[in-house]
Specification:
This protein is an all-alpha fold and 164 residues long. It contains eight helices and no strands. It has one domain. The radius of gyration is 15 Å and the shape is globular. The mean pLDDT is 90.
Length: 164
């Protein structure tokens, strides 16, 4: 168990571990076309973040990185095939993170919120545009900012001066 998960129930811990695959499916599937490039980018990004020793969430990404692609494929089989019901199911699940973030010790709720938003943005930018970079399609734009999540305020700069 990750130290920042000590206040969480087993179901909440599982939701945290499922967040990255769910975010990937939400964003990549917003245009109803989840392609290999988006899944590969999610796997690549989780791998990079697992090695970021300066980051405070690298242990989380080490856990998530382990067979992320397989977990995404597994979840896609469990979720509805149709776009609207699939997106609704994911939004309902991800909305549960609001309570989870509130239970975490500072600064972890903030760090995970920022990390998940950044992750969504990277997945959205991996598809389309010039050389598949820096363009978010109109459907992805509706979900890329993870509107189902309440923004978590940055903790005090005095207590946590090195946070992003």
């Amino acid at each position: 168990m990750l130290k920042e998960f000590h206040n969480l129930t087993p179901a909440e811990q599982q939701l945290m571990l499922d967040a990255i695959p769910l975010i990937t499916i939400l964003v990549a599937g917003a245009d109803d076309d989840i392609d290999e490039v988006e899944i590969a980018e999610a796997q690549r990004l989780a791998d990079i973040r697992s090695f970021n020793k300066k980051g405070q969430t690298n242990a989380y990404y080490e856990k998530v990185d382990n067979d992320l692609t397989g977990r995404i494929m597994e979840m896609m089989k469990e979720l509805p095939n149709a776009l609207a019901p699939r997106q609704e199911a994911i939004v309902a699940k991800l909305s549960g993170l609001n309570d989870v973030f509130a239970k975490m010790d500072e600064p972890f709720g903030y760090l995970y919120y920022k990390s998940f938003c950044s992750f969504a943005k990277h997945v959205a930018e991996s598809h389309g545009g010039f050389l598949r970079f820096m363009t978010v399609g109109p459907k992805e734009a509706e979900v890329v900012n993870l509107p189902m999540l309440n923004a978590v305020e940055r903790p005090s700069k005095i207590d946590y001066p090195n946070l992003p």
